[in-house]
Design goal:
With about 650 residues, the protein is an alpha+beta fold. Helices cover about 40% and strands about 15% of the residues. It is built from 27 helices and 18 strands. It has a seven-stranded antiparallel beta sheet with strand order 3-2-4-1-10-9-11. The chain has a six-stranded antiparallel beta sheet with strand order 5-6-7-8-12-13, with helices on one face. The longest helix has 18 residues. The mean pLDDT is about 90.
Length: about 650
């Protein structure tokens, strides 16, 4: 696990900039820092780990930088940036290639020789041999940049499901990239200008969709894509190509028992790969179906391996995992650690918002932050059950929309417009559970097809709410999903109403929420997160199974039915959410007034009288509006942290 960065400008780049970028990425890679300065026209390079002795007369026009969290091959020979034996190809890389040993053997048979035992070097030579086709061979998660000095070209690729992040900027003169936005904001030529469409997405979804970010001009390389950028012709746009997307068709014709056996075998293989590590490793154990499945399969399929498990008990939360986690930990005889954690958002919220790069409104980020902090005291790699809900239909919202699937089959296109027009005439009320507020909510939920009304399930601000919230001089976009998202959804070839939502989550919610929490939450404490369910071969297999085999995690429950205590199998899904409604009335009340209503508030776009109505209604106890207030509070803190206004 690491942080990567790069800067290109045709004439001259001051290396001080790369050092500033790497400095704010140091939490991603505390073990080693390095960078290489290039004179691309002269084919010269200068590997360095400090700017102290740089000769600025060299006129460097391209710099690659890297901070390393050492996981595989802890020796100096695995440090980056790394080059091939001819110093023609250079790589910076963040991630793990779990099948690197097999790839190494394949490359050795072809005559390649290695100086390290790292997966980085295997990846470099796989690219040297196969070019962009090497991506088809990689099993793991990654973002990497390879500089091909012979062709003066950058090749940047992101893993299939988007576990590792990559942000980039290009304005026709400067091209730069980094693992996190905060590194790019160290560069003086990047303006801190808010991208308003991203704000609208954040209010609706609690996160911001690729390819955009909250900063205008900075973009995300989408999951399953690679980019090519030619340094000889920097005036041209980077060329982005998609090499992977989730697919649900054709369905596999297989009996349930055979599907269960094959699913178990693929999961065993995925887990085995994710145990590869030269540093201490553990598993986050909640006692839910997902983490219990990972643990049970691991324990029953791996001889003489006793895993470390860690469970957090949160004293200020109704959600405490300790009972169920200790139940299965004792049953499977793990090295179990229990940590009682006091959530302290009053003290740490500004820090958490800074680590998470963009406004990020999922409140479960708070316990995740403290969980990863606790885990980092015991190991450098953590295994999780992330992806279980998206693959196996674990969210309640799937059933709510499935129940309403008739909407998609009614001649509603003309009726949608009528309903929307009618809804605008209904008196607005922030209380969506009573009176006109309830009527408006119902009308909005049937005012479009299931895909377009799906964001209503994310506890953000609906389009009607945003109309009321914005000042009159702002015209907002009524379309939540960008065209590129809808086109990608079509390519998945999904047909079932429930699987449409599962596919949409795999494309959007997984990469922009779940995996952001895992990456940035873990990296904040120099902790690598691995997710066996998200092995792409396993994902492809599960997606093409009949829906009836997997929905409500049926196949997972049956895989572990005789391997875990019966209480685990019957346990209902529990969330990982802190008591934000309570916090808004107590420890965060002063913060609400400061960031949302005071003269120091960064909000100019929103009507403060409407924010006051939300707060008063929440404080009255009539309805819990903690999540909308949380979304606004996080946005306000983010704006203040980065010295911006909205």
């Amino acid at each position: 696990m690491c942080g990567i960065a790069g800067i290109f400008k045709k004439n001259f780049i001051n290396p001080l900039y790369i050092e500033k970028m790497l400095s704010v990425l140091s939490h991603r890679g505390p073990d080693k820092k390095g960078f290489v300065c290039f004179q691309t026209g002269k084919h010269k390079y200068y590997p360095l780990n400090s700017v102290k002795n740089i000769q600025y007369s060299k006129n460097f026009d391209f710099i690659l930088g890297h901070v390393r969290l050492s996981i595989i091959d802890l020796t100096d020979s695995a440090h980056q940036p790394m080059s091939d034996e001819e110093n023609k190809l250079w790589i910076v890389y963040n991630g793990e290639i779990f099948n690197y040993k097999e790839l190494r053997k394949e490359l050795e048979k072809l005559g390649y020789r290695f100086k390290s035992n790292s997966d980085t070097e295997v990846l470099l030579y796989a690219f040297k041999k196969y070019g962009q086709s090497c991506l088809e061979k990689l099993r793991g998660f990654f973002v990497f940049c390879i500089y091909d000095s012979k062709n003066n070209k950058l090749f940047i690729a992101r893993d299939r499901l988007g576990k590792k992040p990559l942000k980039y900027y290009w304005d026709g003169e400067y091209f730069c990239f980094a693992s996190e936005i905060k590194a790019l904001l160290q560069l003086p030529w990047i303006k801190r200008e808010i991208y308003m469409k991203a704000v609208e997405q954040y209010l609706s979804l609690r996160y911001i969709l690729f390819p955009y970010t909250i900063i205008k001009g900075i973009k995300k390389l989408p999951p399953g894509c690679f980019m090519e950028f030619f340094l000889d012709t920097p005036q041209k746009e980077p060329v982005i190509t998609r090499y992977y997307f989730p697919c649900f068709q054709p369905k596999i014709n297989i009996s349930y028992n055979d599907a269960k056996e094959q699913s178990l075998n693929l999961l065993k293989e995925s887990i085995k790969y994710r145990l590869i590590s030269d540093v201490p490793l553990g598993l986050f154990l909640s006692g839910g179906i997902d983490s219990s499945t990972i643990l049970a399969v691991l324990c029953y399929s791996t001889e003489n391996y006793k895993i470390n498990t860690l469970t957090a008990g949160f004293t200020d939360s109704n959600y405490d995992e300790k009972y169920y986690a200790s139940l299965i930990a004792n049953f499977l005889n793990t090295n179990h650690i229990e940590k009682n954690i006091i959530l302290n958002p009053k003290e740490d919220l500004t820090k958490i918002v800074w680590y998470f790069d963009e406004p990020f409104g999922d409140p479960s980020v708070i316990p995740v932050f403290y969980l990863t902090k606790a885990a980092s005291q015991y190991f450098k790699v953590a295994i999780t059950g992330d992806g279980g809900d998206e693959l196996f239909g674990g969210y309640k919202r799937y059933y709510i929309h499935y129940r309403n699937r008739f909407i998609n089959y009614l001649p509603f296109k003309a009726l949608y417009r009528i309903i929307k027009a009618f809804n605008k005439k209904i008196p607005f009320n922030w209380d969506k559970k009573h009176s006109w507020g309830k009527v408006s909510r119902i009308m909005e939920s049937i005012s479009d097809n299931l895909i377009n009304t799906y964001p209503l399930r994310f506890s953000g601000f609906s389009l009607r709410m945003q109309e009321i919230l914005y000042n009159a001089n702002f015209s907002h976009n009524e379309k939540i999903w960008p065209d590129e998202i809808l086109k990608l959804l079509e390519k998945t070839k999904v047909s079932n109403s429930m699987e449409i939502l599962m596919a949409l989550d795999q494309i959007t919610y997984l990469s922009e929420d779940i995996l952001v929490k895992a990456d940035l939450g873990g990296m904040a404490h120099s902790l690598e997160i691995r997710s066996p369910f998200l092995d792409h071969i396993f994902v492809e297999w599960i997606n093409k199974l009949p829906l009836s085999y997997k929905i409500n995690k049926k196949i997972l429950r049956d895989i572990i039915r005789d391997k875990v205590p019966v209480e685990i199998l019957g346990r209902k899904k529990a969330g990982f959410n802190p008591p934000i409604g309570k916090w808004m009335k107590t420890i965060l009340k002063d913060d609400l007034f400061y960031y949302l209503l005071s003269d120091e508030s960064p909000f100019c776009l929103f009507k403060k009288e409407e924010i006051k109505k939300i707060m008063d209604l929440h404080f009255s106890g009539k309805i819990n509006l903690g999540e909308p207030l949380w979304i606004l509070l996080v946005l306000g803190i983010w704006l203040k942290t980065y010295n911006l206004e909205l």
